[in-house]
Amino acid sequence: MLAKRLLCRTHAVIIPICIEGNIACGKTTCLKYFKETSNIEVLTEPISKWRNVRGHNLLALMYQDPERWGLTLQTYVQLTMLDLHTSAMTAPVRMIERSIFSAKYIFVENLFRSGKMPEVDFAVLSEWFDWITTNVSIPVDLIVYLQTSPHTCHERLKQRGREEEKVIPLEYLESIHQLYEDWLIKSISVPLPAPVLVIPADHDLQKMLHQFEENRDKILAGSYL
Ligand code: TTP
Ligand code: MG
Known about the structure:
The protein is of the alpha/beta class and 225 residues long. The protein has helices spanning 2-10, 27-37, 47-51, 58-64, 66-86, 100-113, 119-135, 150-160, 170-185, 205-214, 216-221; strands spanning 17-20, 41-43, 94-97, 142-147, 196-200.
């Protein structure tokens, strides 16, 4: 992996690291830490776009009525994530909050499995996803999985008080958690686009920052593989 990355540097092709995990697991905190302490490019999730596309708050609409608005939000999430993945690099290493893969494998999958997305909507999103991943190169070097208990995320979510998310019950976070574990730990559901580094993330901020530092070389150089 290190060799691959060096080779890529020589050819000025750089492959990104995706930070993954449940809602409110601490992805933005992780990105912020590395942005402040290294010369890397950090791309946070385009959530402001999901809250305001030409005046419409898709995130709020989806939480209010997932059956009606799930497809609308997820179509737009897919577009904005594709836009992130394919944007021009500005530094030798790029870190991205989530990926087009988790939008599909976790969130779309969850809406469908929980009966909140009609099969026809799921089929259309899947066709789009398959076309994109077949025809567009979306390389990922490493997935960093911030592994939390759903309970921790629920507590953090309540503390942060994002308006749209007030309706999220613990069960929703449990479903997202299960899909993440199946994908990144058990590797039983869908393909893994890259190796996975797991960081336990139920800890307080100070311990989390310490763990990020401890894992800095593994994350930024991929040399543990
Ligand atoms: P998160 O991607 O979990 O981002 P976050 O900033 O809440 O996480 P962290 O605290 O770890 O930085 O989700 C943002 C919101 O968007 C959340 O309410 C879940 C929602 N969402 C979807 O509904 N569908 C999707 O495909 C994605 C990626 C997010
Ligand atoms: Mg975030």
